[in-house]
Structure formats: C-alpha cells, structure tokens
Write a structure and sequence with these properties.
220 residues; alpha/beta; two-stranded antiparallel sheet; 9 strands; disordered C terminus
Length: 220
C-alpha cells in the first residue's frame, strides 16, 4: 500500500478535526511526519487507522491518532518548552514534538525500540535527545521539564517525575487506576508547589504501560 501526504490529510480530516483537534501548529506537524515510518512492516497497512498499533515488547503501542492528537493538543506545547517524552517507542511522538519545540528528551526502556527510534529520528533529522532509560525514573540529568508526555496509560504518577517537573509545568497522559476495568481518563496535571493538580480532559482507553502498574503506598 502506497502512503503519501494524502493519507495523512485524510486522517486529519476524517479523524482528528471531527474530534476537536484544531491546533493549527499540531495539525501541520502531524501532516508533515510520515506515521508509517514508525510502524512495523506487518502493520503498515493500518498506519492511518484509528487504532493502537503494537510495536512489540509486550506493552508498547503506537497510540491511536485521535487520542494521541487530543492529548498533545491539551499539552499546549510552545517553542520554549523543554519536554520529556516517556515511552517514545519507535519515535513517532518525539518526531511530532520536535516540530513544536527544539528541546525534546525522549526515553524508552526497551533497548531494541530505542534503537529503532534513534534510526527513525535520524532519518527525519529530528532534533531529539534519546536515552534508553527506566520510564518511571524519567531523566533527571536534563530536568526540569515544562511538559512530561506519557505514551500509554498509567495507574499512578511516580514522585521522580513530579520532582523533574518545573513549577507550573504539566504532565499529560491517561490515568487508569483500575487496570482490570480497562477504561481510563485523559488528564492534564499541573504542578503547583510540591503537588499535582489534575484536570480531567476526556475518557480514553489505551494500553497500560506495565512499568506504571505499581500501586501507591497507603497514606495516613
């Protein structure tokens, strides 16, 4: 199947815009980046379908376009932002973010996927610092970040990530406190002082990142 700018235009017109994705800068970035480059060969025909695409390594997926775009729009990325892209997989989210700001740090704990992402981003000449690192640990050497973007559902936000967020900075992702229920909520957390203040955006169902399945300790 031949892919082209027309396939991306159709995705924007038929999936993203009807879902309320109206940020011109974001839509231009999505129109520019070839999504099929980041998809395993056996799934390339599904590159522009509104579905999560498995990347291998158990729980790694390319998030469906509609949810991904709505999350990134809610992040309200601007040129000066420093961004940490968590679970970047094969690099698609990082490539889009690199169209919006020059300061991107991406982490991926699956070594093989990190290498694929590195090759893909190099091919597109995307300005991204990519590290093979623990997802829940973030990457403190490059902190603080104005935005932490999480590619997958989580059941909690680790303290390490909160500490790496600048005052007024945001974490955007999908919270699924009960993984067995399968339904989560897209949330934008804003750091005020030492705490995160959540804003529920919309319901979303995307695959859970197993590294974020840990449960919080009880607080008394």
């Amino acid at each position: 199947m031949a892919y082209s700018a027309q396939a991306r235009t159709n995705m924007i017109t038929n999936q993203l815009e009807p879902s309320g994705v109206v940020s011109q800068g974001l839509l231009e970035a999505i129109a520019k980046v070839p999504r099929e480059l980041f998809v395993p060969k056996e799934f390339q025909e599904a590159s522009y379908l509104d579905d999560d695409i498995p990347l291998g390594h158990g729980n790694r997926y390319l998030i469906e376009p509609r949810v991904f775009a709505r999350l990134l729009q809610a992040a309200e990325v601007i040129q000066r932002h420093r961004v940490l892209d968590i679970a970047c997989g094969t690099g698609y989210s990082s490539a889009i973010l690199a169209e919006l700001t020059e300061h991107i740090v991406a982490i991926e704990s699956a070594g093989e996927l990190a290498e694929v992402a590195r090759r893909n981003l190099h091919e597109l000449k995307a300005s991204v610092e990519l590290f093979n690192a623990s997802l829940i640990g973030g990457y403190s050497l490059k902190a603080p970040y104005d935005l932490i973007f999480i590619n997958g559902a989580v059941s909690f936000i680790p303290d390490e990530l909160i500490e790496q967020l600048s005052e007024g900075g945001r974490i955007v992702g999908v919270l699924c406190e009960n993984p067995h229920a399968g339904i989560g909520q897209a949330i934008r957390w804003t750091k005020m002082g030492e705490r995160l203040h959540p804003e529920i955006l919309f319901d979303a169902t995307i695959p859970l990142l197993t590294e974020f399945e840990q449960k919080r300790n009880f607080e008394f």
